[in-house]
Amino acid sequence: MKAIIDGIRIAGLRAVVPSQRHSFVDEPGMFTVEEAKKLAATIGVQERRVLPPPYCASDLCLAAAEGLMEQLGWEPATVEVLVFVSQDADYVLPATACILQHRLGLPTSAAAFDVPLGCSGYVYGLWIAAKLLGGSSAKRALVLCGDNPTRHLHPEDRATLPLFGDAGSATALEVDASAPPIPVVIGTDGAGAPHIFVKAGGKRHSLIPGVGTAGRIADEETAAQLERESRLTLNGAEVFSFTLRAVPPLLREAMEHAATDVDGIDRFVLHQANAFMLEHLRKRMKVPAEKFIIDMQGFGNTSSASIPLAICHSMGPQLAAGPVKTLMAGFGVGWSWGAMVAELGPMPEPQVVDLPEGYPVLAV
């Protein structure tokens, strides 16, 4: 489907990452030194940020939101929409967004809810929040995108362990009648559900022994099965095939919807899946390298946070000067995809900061 966002501007961005780092180049672990170096060169990840317990993705997003609101000079009482985009909710219930609303001091008139999407989640979150602003009395919104995928990884999975990292972000939107329109393209194909998959944790396959369709028994064998099912499985061949099949048409459709082309876009910021895949897409779309952001060397694939993190880390000074016509596109788990073309900036310079030491945990 296609949509247009009218009268809404993106006022600011901020990303927060854990201070804890891990590099398979420096600590090869299950890899040989040569394997680790070759892998890093292929996927484009030299090190990842790893969030230690008891912190969750919401803590990174909370810190990002607090810092961004301070940077913008926004009072909490002026924000009446909060969208938390994450596949790593704090609890089964309540919605993490409700806890974030309270911690941020937003008014009780605010709409706050979770959107459990991953790779495409940033585009979806911006679209949803903008449409809520356009159809209500609210004037300002926060879209908080963050995941801590490292918690889903099996410690012996050579395919996923070197790739994924943790991050959180905050993006501020506000009503502005002079803002240029933002064209949006969205799509879904649930046939891809098994290819990026964490089986256990929901009601279909509960992590509680004895709950769910299997009527599980709490024994060692069941515990081992639940451990396996609670880890991420990723079919790399299917993901690559989907990406080549779906993303080039998505980018072309987004540019057509925006009445522009590659020459008319200043920066392309795609979900930072892996460098090899992104470079393949860049060449297929004939995008000059200087326009195409690949910025995951120090962070890894951070799921829903990867687009705002890449923007904050690689485009800060440009956005402070602005405007920068930017095509943002997310694609992956679901299958789910979305793209938008937005003029970003001028705005206070977006930043990436480490989660402060001793930061209070967001907990009930």
Walk me through what this model shows.
It is a single chain. This protein has 364 residues and is α/β, with parallel strands linked by helices. The chain contains eight helices and 16 strands. Helices cover 30% and strands 23% of the residues. The protein starts with a strand and ends in a 10-residue tail after the last strand.
Oligomer: single chain
Question: What is the CATH third-level topology name of the largest domain?
Answer: Peroxisomal Thiolase, Chain A, domain 1
Summed up, the helix count is 8
The class by helix and strand makeup works out as: alpha/beta
CATH class designation of the largest domain: Alpha Beta
Using only CA atoms, what is the Rg? 20 Å
CATH superfamily of the largest domain, called what? Thiolase/Chalcone synthase
Q: Order of strands across the widest beta sheet?
A: 1-9-15-14-12-13
Give the helix proportion (percent range): 25-40%
**What CATH architecture of the largest domain do you see?**
3-Layer(aba) Sandwich
